[in-house]
Amino acid sequence: MKVWELGEQKGVGSLRMADRPDPKPGPGQAVVAMKAASLNRRDVGVTQATYGGAKPATRIPLSDGAGDVIAVGDGVTNVKVGDRVTATHFTPWQDGAFDPAFFASDLGITVDGWLTEKALVPAGCLIPIPAPLTYADAAALPVAAVTAWAVIVEFGCIKSGDTVLTLGTGGVSSFALQIAKMNGARAAITSSSDDKLKKCRELGADIAVNYKSRPDWDKAVREQNGGRGVDIVVETAGFATLGQSLASCAPNARVGMIGALAGRPEGQPAMFPLVGQNLTLKGITSGSRRMFGDLMRAMVATNTRPIVDKTFSFADAPKAYQHMVDSEFLGKILITT
Ligand SMILES: NC(=O)c1ccc[n+]([C@@H]2O[C@H](COP(=O)([O-])OP(=O)(O)OC[C@H]3O[C@@H](n4cnc5c(N)ncnc54)[C@H](OP(=O)(O)O)[C@@H]3O)[C@@H](O)[C@H]2O)c1
Question: What is the pLDDT of residue 231?
């Protein structure tokens, strides 16, 4: 079978295609014929050895994928040959609280991932894909959508009529917008591009602010929200924008800190609203298999499908990575076989 490996990790150009024998499942394992996979921001860092340091050159990248089960090992009962499946990227996280031990089995990071014709995975991480979601729909979800769901639904306890703010228009933020609308909330989104903001409005965003032309975007969000702050923030940009995110909040809002897109902060974020507005700030590290199931059920019920920017072939995988590096996309970047 063909696989992509990380190689020397000096950038996207280090990715290399290799031939390997077809995998055979051991006890508790399954082999999945990959039909679709998707990229997340951290996958770019992995090609540069900047996400948790250098990995073995033979590591197969990508945390998100979907396909058909083609073989199962002894003791596997939750899936069978022929099932359409996707998987949680933290393979042991079934339900309950986060455990840092999950990082030891993180698909595409600490163990081989989805950028292969046939993925060998612990069967316990696999989840059947409900009709009518496609392989591509499901492959878009594991990292970005499950994390957005963990912030907005699990931690944020979203209610109809809330306002959800998310920063930028990448994978996580596009799902944050959709999850807000699925739950009867208002969606506020920021971007460096007026064109992307226009598309976000077409996709249902109620509030759209250009964070370049409005460096005081926290004030602009309030202006477009009738003077009121937001109830939930999906903080994708990180500590550099945290002060403005807190300033955007209504009393009692919940802020899920998940990212670092804006780099390291200069000085300390202004944290005063945390106390004065009775806010809750929490770090969120993705979500469980149970949350993933809840997300897919909600997508089916609300007829929601991922916002896909562009799809590349397996042979063109490095072009998909370059498309992410170029940052001209909105939503998810997919690779299909
Ligand atoms: N903790 C977790 O479990 C978890 C899970 C998933 C992702 N993350 C993190 O969440 C972040 C987003 O991930 P992703 O995969 O959605 O990334 P992505 O798809 O690559 O999103 C990139 C977009 O972010 C926006 N952006 C960049 N700098 C920004 C800034 N200073 N302020 C506001 N927006 C900015 C840009 O939007 P515009 O082009 O519209 O300006 C850019 O196109 C990353 O830091 C990632 O590592 C964390």
Answer: 98
The arithmetic mean of pLDDT across residues 163-183, rounded, is: 98
Cβ of 237 less than 6 Å from ligand 1: yes
Please tell me whether residues 12 and 117 are part of one structural domain. Answer: yes
Do 201 and 112 belong together in one domain?
Answer: no
Q: Is the C-beta atom of 41 inside 6 A of ligand 1?
A: yes
Give the span between the Cα atoms of 271 and 336, in whole angstroms.
44
Residue 157 makes CB contacts below 8 A (sequence gap 6+) with 254
259-283 tens-digit pLDDT: 999 998 889 899 999 999 999 999 9
Q: Which helix (H) or strand (E) holds 189?
A: strand 186-191
In the chain, the number of structural domains is 2
Which tokens belong to 168? 């930028």
Atom of ligand 1 nearest to the CA of 259: 45
Residue 278 belongs to domain spanning: 145-283
Query: How confident is the model at residue 320, as a pLDDT?
Result: 98
**Atom 6 (ligand 1) nearest CA:** 144
Same domain for 242 and 171: yes
CA angle in degrees (0–180, nearest 5) for 297-298-304: 110
Atom of ligand 1 nearest to the CA of 40: 15
Can you give the pLDDT at residue 62?
98
